[in-house]
Every structure is written in structure tokens, then in C-alpha cells.
Amino acid sequence: MKNVEDVVQWVNNLIVDQTGEHLTPIQEAILTGVWQRQKYPQIAKEFNCSESHVKKEAAKLWEKLGEELGEDLKKFNLRSKLEKKYRFSQDSNFGCSVPINEGSINIAEEWLHSWKKLQQRSPSPSDSPQNNARSPIIDLTDAPELTGYYDRTSELSTLKKWILQAHTRLIAIYGLSGIGKSDLALKLIEQTQTEFDYIIWVSLTNTPTLSTLQTELKQFFGRSQQPPLPTVIDYFRFSRCLVILDDVQNIFSSSQLAGQYLAGYEDYGKIFKQIATSSHQSCLILLSWEKPKEIANLEAENFSTRSLHLKGLGKKSAEILREKELADEEKWSDFIDLYQGHPSWLNIIAATIWELFDGSVSLFLSDVNDLFLGDLEPILESHLKRLSDSEKKALYWLATQNETVDISRKATDSELSQSEFWQAIQSLGRRSLVEKVLVGGRSRFFLHPVFKAYIQRNLNLI
Hints:
The protein has 462 residues and is of the alpha/beta class. The chain has helices spanning 4-19, 25-35, 40-47, 51-69, 78-85, 108-114, 153-165, 181-192, 210-221, 232-238, 267-277, 293-300, 318-323, 332-338, 343-357, 361-364, 377-384, 389-399, 418-430, 449-457, and strands at residues 137-139, 170-174, 198-203, 241-246, 283-288, 305-309, 434-439, 442-447.
């Protein structure tokens, strides 16, 4: 997270620029405490004043700062709102962050212009034209806003090792919707951008054809490369490029096993394989709900390809509950386990806990035998609608099992053959709906409890 002293300085500068007034000592103490996850009583104790006085001064500060940022600021959303307003910043200099101007065609120029003292980048490889230190050319027009980044230190470390040390050319980050794939990729850009000549984020939400995508990429790379090069791979070889393709699941077909392309989009698989197997110095990252089949095959053949299955936050999810100021901390672990530490799910259910139980986790968990889904149901349904018939049958069978399953044994009450069942389980795993665990040295499989509860209540979907 950002250095708290830099945060205070940045907020102070913002207030001074707009009002001519500096933060008061107590306002600095409140901002520091809230940024460090302290509660008002603790801040009051450290500042040697009453809790009511801290609350009163905090309300004034959130109102004043909210006016300057155009945001409704509260204690629990301070960090996420600031990072939403200012997407990227140097860890050592929060004041150099770049404001997001909605509707901007390309935020890269504004970002680069504001970074007056950008850290000198690593030397480019000898075959790159950029052999003098300079800033990368970046287009994040399609990138979503960083709405709430939670600690993914291990995953970030793994990705940086793959890209900067192992020179991995093709990476898939896959997992359930809302699990944090985009936030992780945005953080990765922030921490590695000085290693690249070009960085671009392209969303596949509108399912562009491969030809359209290649044209867009060549236009981006060609802005500073004269004469223009004939293919994307040529740019990948000539410069160090980082390309992020988001929402890759949109070019995959529903009602088929995971990773099957829509009609007319099969050439995407060919370009993915070409990027993985060709010699170049760049990296393509795919963000998807499901693992592309090419990734699995290329990994098996030991090409420069890796996949990262992004799962829940585990114990780190407590940061979310702390931000939401939920009560009964001794019950947080049970709450997190029920919803697999999924950050989006926890945020959604936390809102329900405030609506119905005034923030009491204990009251919410009073009947743990009936897992509450509420506003999660449309999200779960969007995943299940993509399944093939064989996956639906396997999923229904798994929903009837009370223990983890050894798939080496024939599911006697399943409608599928052994081969069909294995293929369905493999596909469900690539969709993050089924997990594998080791029990007694053997692999066993289970259906996520949240999906299991949803399926048991909605049998007509299967």
C-alpha cells in the first residue's frame, strides 16, 4: 500500500491548492489512522482526545476532501475511493498519481506528463530500438477502474518472476468474475511498466474479430515506430511490449466445454500459439473466466506459457470486513470460509449484513445451514449459463455429494460415461467451478459450496 506520510502530504497539497488551508494536526491524525485501518476510539486515544471529537473532525474532513475529489467519502471507503480517483501512483510518491478523466481517448499522455521524476527504466535488450532510458508508451483506455485492490503479494511476485526472469511470452490469469483479475493486472502494470516500451489494455467485451484486434494493436505500436511493421509479432520482436486482453471468455462459446471458440474466432487460438512459440521479447496476458485450451496444451508442451488460477483471498479477506466495519470479528473466519474469500461476494453480502443485521456477522450466521445468496444469484447464474450439457449433468451429480469425490471411480448414478464425466470435470475446473484437493495423497474434487447451494435451490437450471 502507499506510504502513509505521502498520502497525508498529497491530501494536504490538494486542500491547500483548492482552499489555501492546511490540514489541522487532528485531521492529519485521523487520515493517518484511517489509512492504517485504525478505528476512531484508537485514533482518539493516540491523539489524547475524545472519540466524539474525532468523529466530528473526521466528518468535516471527509466532506471537505469529498468536495475536492467529487466523491462521497466515508471512513470505510476512503482507500478505495482515492485509488478509484487516482488509478496509478508510485509507491514512493503518491503525489505523482494521475487523475482519471472520463471520456479521455488515451490517458497515457496525461499519465506520462505528470510523472516528472519517473524512475529510470532498465536498459532495453540490444535488439530493441529503445536503448536509451525513456518512458513507455501506454494506452489504458479499455482498462477498468481500480475499484479495490487487496493484498495479492504472492500472485504479483509470481507474475513478475514469470515476466521479468523467465521471459514468459503468454500468460492466462483466470478465475470467477469479480475475483480480482483486472485489479491484479493493473497492479502488475504499475509495478513493471518501466520494463516495457509499449503497454496496451484491450477489452474483448464487444468480441472484436482477430483482424480488428490486430489492426488496433498495429495502429497503437505504429504511433512511434516508423516505418510501420507488417505484423504484431514483428512489433513483439522489435520492441518489448505488454498486451493485456481482458474478458477473453467473450470469444468462447456457451453450451460447449470450456475454451471452445465462437464460430469465426478460431484464429485467436492460432495467434495465441504463435505468440507462445515464436522468439520475441514481449508478453501477452489473457484475463478470462475460463482457461483457454491452448494454454493447457502449451503448458503441457513446456513452451513459454503459464497460467495463474486466481482464487479467493483467504484470511486476507478480513481487510474487506474491516473496511465495511462489520462487527463480531471472532466470526469473520466462518463468514469468509462460507464465501471462499471471494472479494466481490464478500462485499455484496457485507452490504446485506448492514441492511438486515446492522453489521452483525453473528446474527447473519445464526443459521449457517441455509447459505444466503441474495444478490449473488444473478452472478452465479451468468456462470452456469455457459455450461455444456455434460458439465451440467456432472455439476448436478457433484451437488448431491456430501464429500469430496474420487473421480477414478465410476459415478454409478451419473448419466455420463467415464470419459464424458472426466472431460466434464476437467472443463468445470477450467471454469473455476470445481476445485481439486489432496486427500490421503490422492486427488479429490468438490463443487464450490456457494454454487452447490444455488444448484440445489434451482434444479431447473440443470
